Amino acid sequence: MLSPLQATQWxxxxxxxxxxxAGFGGTPDEIKAFYQLGFDRAVQFALLGPDDSTQFPKxxxxxxxxxxxxxxxxxxxxxxxxxxxxxxxxKQYRQNDLDLITWWLGxxxxxPNPFREKMTLFWHGHFATSVQKVRETYLMWQQNETLRQxxxxxxGLMVKxxxxxxxxxxxxxxxxxxxxxxxxxxxxxxMELFTLGIGNYAEDDVQQAAKAFTGYRIDPxxxxxxxxxxxxxxxEKHFLGKTGPFSGDxxxxxxxxxxxxxxxxxxxxxxxxxxQDPSGELVNALAQKFRQNNYEIRPLMNTIFRSAEFYxxxxxxxxxxxxxxxxxxxxxxxxxGLPRPQIxxxxxxxxxxxxxxPPNVKGWDGGKAWITTSTLLxxxxxxxxxxxxxxxxxxxxxxxxNPQAVAGNGFDVQNFEGPDLAKVVPQQxxxxxxxxxxxxxxxLFQDPLTPRDTEAFVKYVSDHGPNPxxxxxxxxxxxxxxxxxxxxx
Amino acid sequence: MSHIIEPHTSTLHTxxxxxxxxxxxxxxxxxxxxxxxxxxxxxxxxAADSAIQTATGKDGTILIVLQLAGGNDGMNTLxxxxxxxxxxxxxIIGIPRQNVIKVNDFAGLNPKLTGxxxxxxxxxxxxLQGVGYPNPxxxxxxxxxxxxxxxxxxxxxxxxxxGRYFDSCCKGADPTVGVAIGNESPQSFTSANPTGVSFxxxxxxxxxxxxxxxxxxxxxxEMNAPDPTDMRALDENDGGxxxxxxxxxxxxxxxxxxxxxxxxxxxxxxxxxxKVLAIARKYPAGVSYPRSALGDSLNLVGRxxxxxxxxxxxxxxxxxxxxxxxxxATHTRLMGELNDALVAFAQDMKAQGNFGRVVLMTFSEFGRxxxxxxxxxxxHGAAAPMFVMGGAVKAGLFGQYPSLDSLNSGDLAYNLDFRxxxxxxxxxxxxxxxxxxxxxxxxxxxxx
Lengths: 489, 448
What we know:
The structure holds two protein chains of two kinds.
Chain A: H1 12-22, H2 28-36, H3 39-47, H4 67-75, H5 79-110, H6 114-126, H7 131-134, H8 137-150, H9 155-163, H10 166-171, H11 185-195, H12 203-212, E1 216-218, E2 225-227, E3 237-239, E4 242-244, H13 248-256, H14 259-273, H15 280-292, H16 297-306, H17 323-333, H18 341-351, H19 373-386, H20 391-401, H21 421-424, H22 433-445, H23 451-463, H24 470-481
Antiparallel strand pairs in A: 1-2, 3-4
Helix pairs in contact in A: 1-2, 1-3, 3-16, 5-6, 5-18, 6-8, 8-9, 9-13, 11-12, 14-15, 19-24, 22-23
Chain B: H1 15-22, H2 34-48, E1 62-68, E2 78-79, H3 84-89, E3 101-102, E4 108-109, H4 114-121, E5 125-132, H5 140-149, H6 161-169, E6 178-181, E7 197-199, H7 215-223, H8 258-282, H9 293-306, E8 313-318, H10 327-352, E9 358-363, E10 384-390, E11 396-398, E12 416-417, H11 418-429, H12 434-438
Parallel strand pairs in B: 1-8, 1-9, 5-11, 5-12, 6-7, 6-8
Antiparallel strand pairs in B: 2-4, 3-4, 5-10, 9-10
Helix pairs in contact in B: 4-10, 9-10
């Protein structure tokens, strides 16, 4: 189990696979450059990419508010004014939500270190928290930064940080939990979903852990974590076979001692990056590494990215793209920007993965659950938009008819016009339909298609003459993306 | 192949049509992908199996499953107003006695459920009290899974109860035999041979393109139908050149690979979108529905029923029931939306003359704790009521209201197993062998 891939097996296809899974894929040139790094340096690059924080400064609104002062000011207002202020605040939050999603997708798309963003996306799905309940965008941004900071760090430290994270304190009601009324929500989920998995603790352990997590508050002056000792139950707890006046951190330490914890996380990470239902042996081997390394995440990822299993037929081109992966990877392979926020956010919602708004604390099921007849057709239609068809085509025609006209049909064509076909379908591949289709197969799938599919696309190109016009090429891209194969990576 | 179909000129109606037209009689069986092979071989068996049902869409019974997601507070839905223990446990969020719509001298409905009381009085609504299962689980996910798969609480059942019904009774049927309104497919639809489609906006439930010539459409249809040249699925062990084609079929160690799954879903999408769109264009809303997500969903179900979509089971859901904090306002709004949407749907079905053909059943993963919590909300509980509505339903209160004096860890103890309700619906309404679908015989209710 977990034999390392031989350096001699490092080829263009495996390089594309690592780039797709560890990050969000890339253009043919980017894949070639990644391949040319060699296996060792490519894996290193995926684990220790450059820091991009100066390129992605925090949004202007990402700062704490003095809730106490706000409350006091509000109290002096008439009820009507209070209502107006509340509504304005909600409106501002909604705008900020949109901004936050755009900010993160932009970072995934343009960061020189997309690998850290991918890992952060994994942890967001793992510690799934929704702005629907948290309300305030700043807290969601802050949680996102916490996850990013620990993404490749230490899992134990990350769980402790998350147990104090203000967004999580709201999401799972820890801030409501009092000594005489412990709230079980966080105590249950921290074991069921964040560390151990169901069946590895008893109902009584939930109640005991709930006592340990009492006294966690949010400071109304700056929205930071505050420990309130008078609300903390410092009595004896009987937790997972141990007894003592445990704190929340003690409870997390006891959880980390359970072999089930390393297995649970290792399996979930493997399923996110490689494939579903790994063998028990593989999970145990990974879990052992994970525990040996004191729950350090980077060595775990190193083992995964270097394993032959990660590049096996079970793994390569078998994963159904998540909606976020679909959107970011599409933008990369077509070398376009991201469609403007409203369009992107609406698409992600329809496709079932709006960042910062997971359906529940379990996160997104993923895999086959991404695909229904409804979401599959939506992906195909989103591809139509991404290649510059539909409303974008109408806009282009309008501008041809009236070059003076400014963009005004609601689609921000300056931000998004679809692909530059001179770049995406270079001149040198255009003369020969077979060569053109083979080239686009590598760009879109990083793999050849079946003979039938290849022939159908070659025929489509041939039918449009020796030099297909831009409209035909866009439609060809749309058709190639309107396939089951394009949904895989 | 003796018969070549022209997908653009002849739209296929069912997966079975597709197989018949393209594959039967031709010596191509060795190239059929695994997912189709299964269906293919079941065709012969079909005639012999009397349990197989065909949904024509014009007659036959229809089930609508309505999920109240998040754990509906059953005690503020059907209120034990005569029991002082209720008011002691819920001093703030208890519904005042004078506001309860009384059903009998012990229990009554939430004040917002006026329309449901009307349906009850006219004999078209039954209220099932204290529904649950042994050893209740209080996790949303696990308890939802138990309801969706009809499993015992200590067993994990891989497939959904409706999926098992489709599997045992609707083999070879059109994929629209199960319709989920929304973008997701419910866990109850999962099965060994998954079927069912989901959509929320008919006008967007189609493949859009800018090519007026139709050439593009034809390629789309071809690319999203089975590939007879695709032999990969046959050789599970090949790792050579064929296996390295885009999308290795050997992906999953368990059953259908992701590629096979995508191919099948693509075919279902293609075939069902033609029908759904045609019906949506021809059948506008019959009555005025309230403006809510649930109202929109049931409106769409109403139109599909009017248009005769060949569906046996529709699945809709209403979310937001996880009321841990300050639940009064939220729960009241949800009850109002539920009431208004169900009343409109009943009117629609009556106007269509289809009320006698439909049964709508509500369920939630659990009820909530008897005592309110420190945040004027309620935590996860156990037993709760269900509603069953329809022209053929026998109205009344079924079961006993669970006692508030003998609680099970602070929660109401169930006295009616939800699988008895499923069994009744399967046996008496869908005419399907419940014992086969549910794995054992549950007592039936005199519900329909």
